[in-house]
Each structure stands twice: as structure tokens, then as C-alpha cells.
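The instructor's notes for this session suggest beginning with a concrete chain rather than abstract definitions. Hand out the sequence below and ask the class to guess, before any prediction is shown, which regions might be ordered.
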Amino acid sequence: MTPDLDSLATALHVKTDDLLKESSHPASWRPAVGIAPRLTDAELVTLAVLQALLGFPSERRWIRRATAHLRHLFPYPPGQFGYNRRLRKPADLIAHVNRLLVTDTSLWAESVWIVDSTPLECGRSRENAERSDLVGWAEYGYCASHSRYFRGLRPHLVCTLHGLPVAFALTGAKADERQTLLGILHADPDLARSRPGQTLIADRHHYGRAFEHELAQWRLHLLRTAREGEPERAGGGLFKPLRQTIESVNQTFKAPLDLERHHGRTQGGVMVRVLQRALALTSAIWHNDHTGQPAMRSLTAYDH
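After discussion, reveal the predicted structure:
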């Protein structure tokens, strides 16, 4: 099968619809009596994925595009207000569908995961910082990789070597990466329990005897670069190309998927936009895997 946007949309809609029928608890609750929406939850998820893949940060422009050119996929596209309102509610639904798609790929069996975070700006001016609804969450922090200060958040990503998002979290810019990783494990204990002996590759910020001891209790093996003053750690020569992999994954989020142009102004709005991009990348990798494509993380077939 030749991968294209229509085939991805069709396969994703069918898969999501089947998943929601098997496990309906993440879907939006509706009363038994009333007017049923013409756009189903499976269509909503598919529409959100296509928005990210085609590079439309503006929901108003995206709805105009879908109404004019995607009627063969979505006979009843929503209005901009309705789409915005419905998209803010199912954050749990998007995360649930993402996990089910991840486990439906051959990459789920990989024994090595990479852990990293990246800056996500949420406005730069002082006036924006003082009046924003993100006050108390978005913070001023420093990115050593880019040697710059920024105001915003940090998406923390656990992914496979092919870039498949396995787990993620969104924190303030100053959040401790070690505590965030442990928080991800505690929030989803089955993630580690189902993968005993999994190897985590991280940067030098993931250090500490207590931290590594707790990872060992989860039966996870940590590989990281040595900090200044430490002796060389095992496997140090392998880190440079593997670290480049996670930087490439972060760049996929920021460039083709426009994560830095998220336009989020509230905590819920930013959160669902990050989840939307993660699901878009997962969907593309899932479809490439099932259609036998050589480049799993390639979005070229779906961005036009």
C-alpha cells in the first residue's frame, strides 16, 4: 500500500473507532437522550491528527481547509467554535488512543528507550508573563543545549530509537528532569512493570544514587553520559549518535509538526496541543509500520 493522507486518515479512523468500542471510558460522555453530534469522537481524533500533519496551527484556517477540501473524509466538518470546544475536552482520549497505537506497532518490542526534554516557549514579554493564564505553570528557565533563556514549559518525552512516543509529560521550565521521569513511571506503573529489563538512555542531568536506585527498583537500566569529575561510564562511546536521535525527534515536533507555534493560552489548550502533535507523530509511525515503509518517522507522504 502506498502511504498518503487519505489512507492514513481512513486507517486511523477505523482503528480509533474500534478501540473506542472496545474501551469506551475515555470517550466523551453524552446523555442517552438528546441530539447526537454529527462528528464522532473517532472523526474528531482523526481531524486533529490531520491538522497537525498538514501544519495548521490556526484552528480557524484549519476548519476552512477541511470544509473546502476534506468533505470526502468528513461529510460534516464542525464550526471553529465547536471544534475548539470539543478538542479541549478529550485530552485523556487522545492520550489513550496514542498508547493503544504505540502498542500496535512492531517498535513496541524494542528494548531501548530514550529520555529527553525540550523548551517550549509560551510568550516572551513581561506583560504576557504577568497576564497569561499560564502564570504559575510557565516559568523562566535555561536551555543548555541551545544556550538561551526562555519563558515557557518543557515537554518531557520517552521514545523508542525510531522516535515512537511511548510516554510524555508537560512541566514548567525549571522542573527537575529526574523527578519528572519518576512521576511518569508512578502515573503509569504498568509501563515499566510490563517491560522488565528495559534500558533508558538519558543525558547527564539524570544522575544521583537515589535516582538510579529507584529506577533499578522499577527494573530499568539507566545509561547516561558521565558528568564532570566522574569516571567514564559503560557504553559512553555509543551516546553521541543516540543523543542525535532524540534531538532529531524533538526537531520533528518543532518543525514539521509546528509545536512551537502551538497558540495555546490556557493550561488545557497547551496540553491538548502537545498531545495532538504526539498523536500525529505516533499515527504516522504506526501507519508507516503497518504499510512496510523503510523510514518509520517520515511525514513526507502526509504533509500535503
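Then share the key points. The chain has two domains: 1-104+265-304, 109-254. The chain has a mean pLDDT of 86.
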